[in-house]
Amino acid sequence: MHFYRIDHVAQVTPDLDGQVALLEGLFGFTPVRTWDSAEEGTRGVRLEIPGSWGQAWEVLAPSGDGSALQVWLDEHGGRAGLHHIGAEVPDLGAVRAELKTRGLKPIAGGGGRWLEASLSPPERGPGVLFRMRGPGALGMCGDEDARPAAPTSGGGASLGIVGLDHVCQAFPDRDELARWYADLAGFVPVWRTPLEEHPDMADLVMNIPGSAICWEIIMPRGEDSFIERFWDRNGAAAHHVTFEVADWDRAMAACAEHDTPTFDEEEGVTDGASWRHTFIHPKHTGGVLVQLFWEERPGVWVRSDKIPADIPVAETSGT
Fold first, then answer.
1. pTM metric for this prediction
2. Whether 236 contacts 229, CB under 8 Å
């Protein structure tokens, strides 16, 4: 099976209107479609991400009795969070067959229009949930009969986001997961940090064919790695989502205006050009850890000082 496009990132919330207002105001997203499907158990809003080239953000909430999203919220203590990554595939039937041969367990939804499955190696436990559809089936979230959404004024300064850069997943061995995604879904390795660059982590980034966004894999190194602690709590889950901003001072001023603190800010210079990055805690974003970065020249933040990501047969992780 192969992906040919990432369609959206979806989060679930008990407060649809409040979450959409946050994404319009602080993040500067634009609502484009809205729906309420009691049959599918889903209310939702699809929002455009500035500079995203086709990848959208979807906010979902339960609708009607017996909603699977309500079950999901109940299992997560009523807390909002990232739910799935929406992807398009050339042949949904072939995907179903391939997943079953690999020990994965796809669940059909939308009257057979889409499949949902964790795509991480099954022996590692459930990971990031993907929702996949084939050509011509436009709905994946109960949004087959969506209607145009009416954007609001947004409410104050926004971060000045210019693109969704990547989704990051935690995993004990970056090369194991990279080999798996390359073979399963056609992801292409791009670069990796040298093993000794950071004391508590190492990462590897892959391109997703047909998509502007990338997939980052972070693995723990050393003692008391934050990734090890995350893995112990969450397994092979998505760790964070990263956006690029056009102007650092504007982004920080927007956070201040919206009473949104940031943490773990870092800055540096690579090849003579400056860069900065920071994080917003999930409690301020609707359950998703968000990373923001700015770079003075394209590529200096994470790429120009890295090494190609040829995947070796084995590598000592140092965990």
1. 0.93
2. no
Give the start-to-end residue ranges of the domains of the chain. 5-138, 161-308
- Neighbour count for residue 308 (Cβ, 10 Å): 8
Does the domain at 5-138 match CATH 3.30.565.10? Answer given as no
Q: What CA–CA distance (Å, rounded) separates 221 from 206?
A: 20
C-alpha closest to that of 239 among 129, 128, 163, 132: 128
* pLDDT score recorded for residue 223: 83
Q: How many other C-beta atoms lie within 10 A of the C-beta of residue 255?
A: 19
Q: Return the percentage of the chain with pLDDT > 70, whole number.
A: 94
Asked if residue 155 has pLDDT above 70, the reply is no
Q: Which two tokens stand for residue 196?
A: 């000794």
**Beta-bridge mates of residue 191:** 205, 308
Position 319 scores a pLDDT of: 38
Average pLDDT, whole number, for the chain? 91
Other C-beta atoms closer than 10 Å to the C-beta of 155 total 13
Instruction: Pick one of 3.90.105.10, 3.10.180.10, 3.30.2350.10, 3.60.20.10 as the CATH number of 161-308.
Output: 3.10.180.10
Tell me which residue has tokens 């394209």. 298
Type of residue at 219 = M
In the block, tokens 């770079």 appear at: 295
d(CA 292, CA 245): 7
Residue 229, CA distances (Å) to 220, 246, 282 in order:
9, 32, 16
Comparing CA positions, the residue from 168, 181, 215, 205 lying closest to residue 102 is 181
Amino acid identity at 214: C
Distance (Å, whole) CA 12 – CA 122:
24
pLDDT digits (tens, 9 = 90+) for 125-153: 999 999 999 887 678 999 988 999 987 76
Which amino acid belongs to residue 24?
Answer: E
